[in-house]
Amino acid sequence: MRKNNNTTEENSKREFIFQKKNYIFMGIGLALITLGFVLMSGGGSDDPNVFNPEIYNFRRIRLAPTLVLLGLGIEVYAILLNPHKKKD
Questions:
Q1: For residue range 41-81, what is the model confidence (pLDDT) as tens digits?
Q2: Dihedral of the CA atoms 19, 25, 26, 30 (nearest 10)?
Q3: Alpha carbon separation from 80 to 19, 24, 60, 63, 64 (Å, rounded)
Q4: CA-to-CA distance for 36 and 49, rounded, in angstroms?
Q5: 45: left (phi > 0), else alpha (psi -120 to 50), else beta?
């Protein structure tokens, strides 16, 4: 007699590694990283002989890198999040 392997494949349900909750957090993290890089851009000068102190303002030195690091932290949390874990 020969075993039918198709029935075992039909019985085992295929699942994605991540669930909807993981993807939501990944989207939030990606949005924060993108916003951080957008806030870092600009502040340059068209003339290389003119110094523009605008590149050292609060937005580019403190706020934007903080948003990028926060976004990376949310990405790590989204990857490690287990939506199947039941609370006792």
A1: 987 777 888 888 888 899 999 999 999 999 999 999 999 99
A2: 160
A3: 12, 13, 30, 26, 25
A4: 28
A5: beta
